[in-house]
Design a protein that fits this description.
The chain is an alpha/beta fold and 346 residues long. The chain folds into 2 domains: 137 residues, NAD(P)-binding Rossmann-like Domain (Rossmann fold, 3-Layer(aba) Sandwich), CATH 3.40.50.720; 180 residues, Dihydrodipicolinate Reductase, domain 2, CATH 3.30.360.10. The chain contains 10 helices and 17 strands. It has a 9-stranded mixed sheet. A hairpin with a 6-residue loop joins strand 9 and strand 10. Helix 5 packs antiparallel against helix 10. The chain is globular.
Length: 346
């Protein structure tokens, strides 16, 4: 696509307002021309704040609008499949907010629509580990840890500790599906660095079982766990332990630990510090990484380059199917008590 990229937005939540709209505004020959949010009032506020011409009442109007040639989907996961498939079938490239979908089946429908259309379709990548992503890939390729044997992912916080706090969309299965805590984010990061997941076995808990749904005022069952312990086998043979919680008091920051046959790497997510130890008896030390390998937030530019055929979309819808398989397999394993093989299959 060499013409002006004219974007229509479906759903303009916090990340769209804070990151995507400012990022798109800095790119030449790109204009956001239409928006549809959950209510007419919020649509008008966003249009006024960002100078968006067309304020539409229904998300389908964004896709059908004759001046829109590219679609950005910023809604909660419940609408990702329907909006993505409709946009691709209308001949319009798609940028979709993460998590990809509510379940693996919806993710595959999105991927199949992209395959059939041949159009660029990209998911929003997580910022977790983004800064030193290239450095981690280099260190692994150079054999810093030797053969990766054991990987630990720790993501603990206390957002759901208050039993009187209302139900959020992230805890509502009709809106979020199988997505739980930061599992999809870290499954995506681990796959990017270490390859595909082969199987998972999981246990989950929901400690606060009921919450008030704020729009209705009714007490609803919490359908999404607030704690996950999952072990995965990678295709390479390495074992990954995921420990995730939303009910952890005074928890340390997120981290990824990699233990290999010849060394250790630790990525401290908060602060973006990479520590390593190579020799027997050596303590972990922060590695002196080059700014040449540092990546900033250029997600919007990456998408526009993909739309213009200058690079491949990353993460792609294919990548999204892989991490949605991990997410759904975790839920299936916790329910059945069984080891679930991956991929789940079409």
């Amino acid at each position: 696509m060499t013409e002006m990229v004219r974007i229509g937005i479906i759903g303009a939540g916090g990340i769209v307002r804070d990151r995507h709209l400012p990022g798109l505004s800095r790119i030449d020959s790109v204009e956001v021309i239409a928006v549809c949010n959950r209510t007419s009032e919020s649509t008008a506020r966003i249009a006024d704040a960002y100078g968006i011409r067309y304020r539409l009442e229904d998300w389908r109007e964004v896709i059908a609008h004759p001046e829109v040639n590219t679609v950005l989907i910023g809604t909660w996961p419940y609408l990702h499949r329907d909006a993505s498939v409709a946009a691709l079938q209308a001949g319009k490239p798609v940028f979709c907010q993460a998590r990809m979908a509510r379940n693996a089946s919806e993710a595959r429908q999105m991927r199949n629509a992209q395959r059939a259309s041949g159009l660029p379709a990209m998911l929003c990548p997580p910022p977790h580990g983004m800064k030193w992503d290239l450095a981690i890939r280099r260190l692994l390729a150079e054999g810093f840890v030797g053969t990766p044997l054991s990987i630990r992912v720790q993501s603990l916080h206390g957002r759901y500790l208050d039993p009187h706090a209302p139900l959020t969309w992230r805890q509502d299965k009709s809106l979020s599906g199988y997505n739980v805590l930061t599992l999809g984010i870290y499954a995506e990061v681990i796959r990017r660095w270490f390859g595909d997941h082969k199987a998972v076995q999981a246990m989950t808990r929901t400690h606060v079982k009921q919450r008030v749904e704020p729009s209705s005022g009714l007490v609803e069952e919490v359908q999404i766990p607030d704690m996950v312990s999952m072990t995965a086998e990678l295709a390479s043979g390495a074992i990954v332990e995921y420990s995730l919680s939303g009910i952890a008091h005074a928890a340390p920051s997120d981290r990824i630990e990699v233990y290999g046959s010849e060394g250790t790497l630790v990525y401290e997510i908060e602060g973006d510090r990479v520590l390593g130890a190579k020799n027997p008896g050596e303590s972990l030390k922060e590695l002196p990484l080059s700014d040449d390998e540092s990546r900033g937030w250029e997600v919007e530019l990456d998408f526009i380059r993909a739309v213009r055929g200058e690079r491949a979309p990353e993460p792609s819808f294919e990548d999204g199917v892989a991490y949605m398989d991990v997410v759904e397999a975790t839920a299936r394993s916790a329910l059945s008590g069984r080891r679930i093989a991956l991929p789940l299959g079409d």
